[in-house]
Design brief:
single chain, 410 residues, alpha/beta, seven-stranded parallel sheet, seven-stranded mixed sheet, 15 helices, 15% strand, globular, disordered C terminus
């Protein structure tokens, strides 16, 4: 497809001009694959990794196919798993320059502003399932006029237990709706949603082109708990920035304070933080105000920042899916990245199980002194480097390039 060719996919001239002004002149593969069918009103079942450009694909569809709504009765609904993703989708739709009124609803903030927006009238509602169900129960909104439904990051919603709420919400929309579903995987519970709520969907599967993939190195280091803060601080200083994952909210707050005492500015982001706190943390990390973002699994899919050179699993994840989602924060937009898992005696067996599920070598090495500047006590130097593998939203393979994903700004 030639450049400046959104028009050939059926996109309106005013929207093409808006994209052109932002320097977006060539459709991504997921946009080329889905836009013509979506603009024709077909249900879409799209399999694509985070960062593949799907947000713009459904944003353009909404901008062209959504009409003006009455107060409390939106015409389009986008369901997302996290607050950060809701805010991102709102920005993408708004940036198209369409006159549509777009509003997000999610927890962690007061109800007042969201209710006021619904009373004024919202054409496109971007929502996390829990808060939306609360607003419906309180009589603040009806979904009966919704004619376009987008279910974004459906696999993550399944992982977080949101699909029962998604089904209840979609059941309340207009029976003659168009349903667009996007997910990194289409099996299990996601396939149930496809079969129940989509009519003869057009299926499209898109992966990141090989020449747009960065190389991601996956390392498993033997580091006991009393040495992990020191090793993490040295990794952050070596790479310049890092996203550090902890298992619990309390653990994330504790590590943030410990890193500060070690001279590394960090900010925590997790479910117990208010939305303004989460927004400030993400902005501080994106702008370089802090070197590290300390996160829990619930925030893994909501972090969309390019140029993250390192991910640290301070607490190794419990599932291979969580490992993939966490690790996908690095190696984006063609850049290389490093993923380091800190393994102690208490979780060595669980990490071996994780490596088997990911089809990675069953090895845990000593930290690389070239990266951290020292060798922790009572640990021998590694005999060989860890595997270089890809960081796509699927299980890593040994000695394969990959992991780069363009940001969701397109």
């Amino acid at each position: 497809m030639s450049r400046n060719d959104f028009a050939s996919l059926g996109v309106r001239p005013d929207l093409v001009a808006s994209l052109d002004a932002r320097g977006i002149t060539a459709p991504f593969p997921i946009q080329s694959a889905t836009l013509t069918d979506a603009l024709a009103g077909r249900d879409i079942c799209g399999r694509a990794p985070t960062g593949s450009g799907k947000t713009l694909a459904f944003a353009l569809t909404i901008a062209m196919r959504t009409q003006r709504a009455k107060p409390k009765r939106p015409k389009a609904l986008v369901l997302v798993p996290t607050r950060e993703l809701a805010a991102q989708v709102q920005r993408e739709i708004t940036s198209l320059g369409s006159p549509l009124r777009v509003a997000p609803v999610y927890g962690g903030v007061g109800y007042g502003a969201q209710r006021a927006a619904l009373r004024r009238g919202v054409d496109v509602l971007v929502a996390c399932p829990g808060r939306l169900e609360d607003l419906i129960q309180q009589g603040d909104i009806s979904l009966s006029d919704v004619r376009i439904v987008v279910i974004d990051e459906a696999d993550r919603m399944a992982d977080m237990g949101f699909l029962p709420a998604v089904r209840r919400l979609v059941d309340q929309t207009n029976a003659d709706r168009q349903t667009l579903l996007f997910s990194a995987t289409l099996d299990g519970d996601v396939d149930v949603i496809v079969k129940r709520y989509q009519r003869d969907p057009v299926r499209h599967e898109v992966s990141t082109p090989e020449d747009e993939q960065g190389e991601v190195e996956h390392l498993f280091w033997r580091v006991e708990r009393d040495q992990r803060v020191d090793v993490t601080a040295r990794l952050i200083n070596h790479h310049g920035s890092a996203v550090v994952f902890c298992r619990t909210r309390h653990g994330a707050d504790r590590v943030t304070k410990q890193l500060a005492r070690a001279g590394v500015e960090a900010a925590a982001i997790h479910g117990s933080r208010s939305q303004p706190q989460r927004d400030r943390a993400l902005e501080a990390f994106s702008s370089g105000g802090v070197k590290a973002l300390i996160a829990t699994d619930v925030a893994a899919r909501g972090i969309h920042v390019d140029d993250v050179s390192c991910v640290v699993h301070f607490d190794p994840p419990t599932t291979d899916k969580d490992y993939v989602h966490r690790s996908g924060r690095t190696g984006r937009a063609g850049a290389d990245g490093t993923v380091v898992s800190l393994v102690g005696s208490e979780n060595a067996k669980a990490v071996r199980d994780l490596q088997r599920a990911l089809r990675l070598p069953l090895q845990v090495d000593a930290p690389d002194a070239a990266l951290v500047g020292f060798l922790p006590k009572a640990v021998a130097r590694p005999s060989r480097p860890g595997p270089r593998t890809h960081g796509q939203d699927r299980a890593p393979r040994r000695n394969r390039r990959g992991g780069g994903r363009r940001g969701e700004t397109r």
